[in-house]
Amino acid sequence: MGRKYTISDHSKLYFVTFTVVNWIDVFIQDIYKEKFIESLAYCRDNKGLQITA
């Protein structure tokens, strides 16, 4: 079960980590890599996510 965290100070840098359902290795199959990149791009373009690394 996931937890919902709230970012309260938008001027700070946050470290985010996650796991996936059934521990699917998302970086082996191209379809999973593409979906992961699409999800990051969506959050960057539509939700203000700033990716630093």
Could you list some keywords that capture this structure?
53 residues; mainly alpha
Describe this structure in a few short sentences.
This protein is mainly alpha-helical and 53 residues long.
For the termini, the CA-CA separation is 26 Å
Q: What's the β-strand tally?
A: 0
What's the multimeric state? single chain
Strand content: under 5%
| Helix-strand string | H
Can you summarize the main beta sheet?
Answer: none
Count every helix, treating DSSP H or I runs of 4 or more residues as helices. Answer: 1
Which parts are unreliable, with pLDDT below 50 for 5 consecutive residues or more? Answer: none
Give Rg in angstroms: 13 Å
* Envelope shape: globular
Helix content: 25-40%
Sheet/helix structural class: mainly alpha
Topology (SSEs and partners):
Layout (H helix, E strand, L loop, with lengths): L29 H18 L6
Describe, in plain words, how this protein is organized in 3D:
There is one protein chain. This protein is mostly helical. It contains one helix and no strands. The longest helix has 18 residues, at 30-47. The chain is globular, with a radius of gyration of 13 Å. 0% of the residues are buried.
